[in-house]
Amino acid sequence: MFFLGKVIGIDIGGSTTKIVGFDKKEIINPLLVRANDPIASVYGAFGKFLNINSLKIDDVERIMITGVGSSFINSKLFGIPTARVDEFMAIGLGGLFLSKLKKAIIVSMGTGTALVKAEHNTAVHLGGTGVGGGTLLGLSNRMLNVRNFDELIETAKGGDLSHVDLTINDISKEILETLPSETTASNFGKISDLVTNADLAMGIINLVFQTIGMVAVFNTRIDNIKDVILTGNLTNVPQSEHIFTQLSKLYDVNFQTPRNAEYATAVGAARCYAENVAYKEI
User: Fold this and answer.
1) Nearest 5°: CA angle at 52, between 84 and 271?
2) Which of 26, 103, 192, 274 is the most exposed place for a label (fewest CB within 10 A)?
3) What pLDDT does residue 2 have?
């Protein structure tokens, strides 16, 4: 489909709204706005997006919305044709577009985690887990009195997992061909008297991302898909890269995080208009 004007994709979450624009196939400055009110966040994000990119309302051909907060939008935004997009389709198409792949499992890591098998312009929800960003903040709040991601990331620097997690080496001196000695046998299975806040923070991060990673690995076995695309806010946690790299080597799975991964669902919402799939006019 050829766009006469800009197409805007908006992912309305519980606490954040993400917005991205498309001019033909080029992404225009994605941005994120934090707000607890989904309607206020949509209007705020859209106004900020127009201002930053020196755009006028007349420049926008179409607005595509998705996410849990999209159910609160019942009329056109700013009089512009607006449509609601199936969230799982948005996750799938966004992940494929950003990764430039034709087929992959897309992992959307938000408050919880959803997994979608995407191929061309189709997407199937595989399931997910309640382990996600909410788990990270809930555990860090309770265990460390840390209440935001930036502080948790900073606290985890220099953390030593050997003071927190039980490894294969701790329970067996036998060399196992399929399980390296440093492989986690039990998250938080070996809390040492020497444990520090940095160790605990790293243990929490390791628990969450290993759980997400293993759920993804199990799903790759269904259709023998090797590529797993990581998307969502949690892709910004730097310690996750090493965890997914380890899982890639251990299970022969290609975990990758494309550029603009945190905006994948908003990107997918806009791409649904281009592909003419999975949306309903408001």
Assistant:
1) 30
2) 26
3) 47
Is it the case that residue 155 has pLDDT exceeding 80? yes
Q: How far apart are CA 136 and CA 140, in angstroms?
A: 6
Over residues 22-43, the mean pLDDT reads 86
* Spatial separation of the C-alpha atoms in residues 11 and 270, rounded to whole Å: 10
The pLDDT of residue 200 is 97
Q: Which has the higher per-residue pLDDT, 267 or 167? A: 267
Mean pLDDT of 197-207: 97
pLDDT for residue 177: 67
The answer for residues whose C-beta is within 8 angstroms of residue 237's C-beta and 6 or more apart is: 136, 149, 153, 205, 209
Q: Are 206 and 273 in contact (CB under 8 A)?
A: no
pTM: 0.93
Q: In this predicted structure, what is the pLDDT of residue 194?
A: 87
CA geometry: angle 63, 67, 68, nearest 5 deg: 130
198, with CB counted inside 10 A (0-12, 13-18, 19+), is: middle
Burial pattern 133-172, b for ≥16 Cβ within 10 A else e, equals: bebbbebbeeebebeebeebbebbeebebebbbbbbbeee
